[in-house]
Specification:
It contains eleven helices and nine strands. With 274 residues, it is an alpha+beta fold. The chain has a single domain, classed as Beta-lactamase, CATH 3.40.710. The strands form two sheets. It has a seven-stranded mixed sheet with strand order 1-3-2-9-8-7-6, with helices on both faces. The chain has a two-stranded antiparallel sheet with strand order 4-5. A hairpin with a 4-residue loop joins strand 2 and strand 3.
């Protein structure tokens, strides 16, 4: 039976309306300021609208580096490796270049300081097979946990650090999908684990917004390109925006580390979100 013209016209309107909701914007000046290539995705939860710069790159998968500490926190809580955000990870006594790591740290502090030895220690307790199951369960990235033992940065401490020197990859689109489920408490783990994780990756609180964010940096090794991340979400009253910024450079400047967050904040200001 043929559809009536009325039904057909409604269908066309709906498809047309949905297509118009996503938008592409030119944000190159924000990346040029720091001399990096990059891409940006914003998702407005209330309007169900994506805003993208360099959309093709937004769908490309990269190593999550330290942004993986967010799902890793969920996993170690769910597995009972850590009880809550106050659980202590004992310092092994080895002095490292990043001073905050040279002490006992709580799980919360380990996330906020991107403590690599803390997370590799936790990874050894969880085990690769358990991680493989969780990555599928959480639908995080490409679900791979294999390690690049030929990576110049490989060592015994990193033998299970698949998010740093392994085949695990995730796109900016994938980061936002994961963060949306975390924010809405819709991941297939306990609400307790999700609530604790959400609380401890708060990056800033002001009178006007609450910013949850996590940086990441993959050092150039096998492909010659350094990749930086800043992912998270910002709550402004009852409005929530999810974001994922990714930058890359073959010759990163001293500003590369701060560029990840500063580019994001400059874009949020430029889009008149904050």
């Amino acid at each position: 039976m043929n559809k009536s013209p009325f039904i057909l016209s409604i269908s066309i309107v709906i498809v047309s309306f949905s297509w118009k909701k996503d938008r592409e914007v030119d944000l190159q000046k924000y990346f040029d300021e720091f001399g990096v290539k990059g891409s940006f995705v914003l998702y407005d939860l209330q309007e169900e609208q994506y805003t993208r710069y360099n959309p093709e790159r937004c769908r490309k998968k990269f190593s999550p580096s330290s942004t993986f500490i967010i799902p890793n926190t969920l996993i170690v809580l769910e597995e009972g490796v850590m009880k809550d955000e106050t659980s202590i990870i004992k310092w092994d006594g080895i002095k490292r270049p990043i001073k905050p790591w040279n002490q006992d740290l709580t799980l919360a502090d380990a996330l906020r300081t991107s403590c690599e030895p803390c997370n590799t220690k936790l990874a050894d307790k969880v085990g690769l097979e358990t991680y493989r199951e969780y990555l599928k369960k959480l639908d995080y990235g490409n679900h791979k946990v294999s390690i690049h033992t030929d990576d110049p940065f490989y060592n015994e401490e990193r033998k299970n650090a698949f998010w740093l020197i392994g085949d695990l990859k995730i796109s900016q689109e994938g980061q936002i999908d994961f963060l949306k489920k975390l924010y809405q408490l819709k991941l297939p783990v306990s609400k307790k684990a999700m609530k604790i994780t959400k609380n401890i990756f708060i990056d800033e609180k002001t009178d006007t917004y609450v910013l949850n964010g996590k940086t990441g940096w993959t050092n150039a090794a096998l492909d010659g390109i350094d990749v930086g991340w800043y992912v998270g979400y910002i709550e402004i009253g009852t409005h929530v925006y999810f974001f994922a910024t990714n930058i890359g450079s073959k010759d990163p400047k001293d500003s590369f580390a701060r560029a990840r967050k500063e580019i994001t904040m400059n874009i949020l200001k430029g889009l008149e979100i904050i």
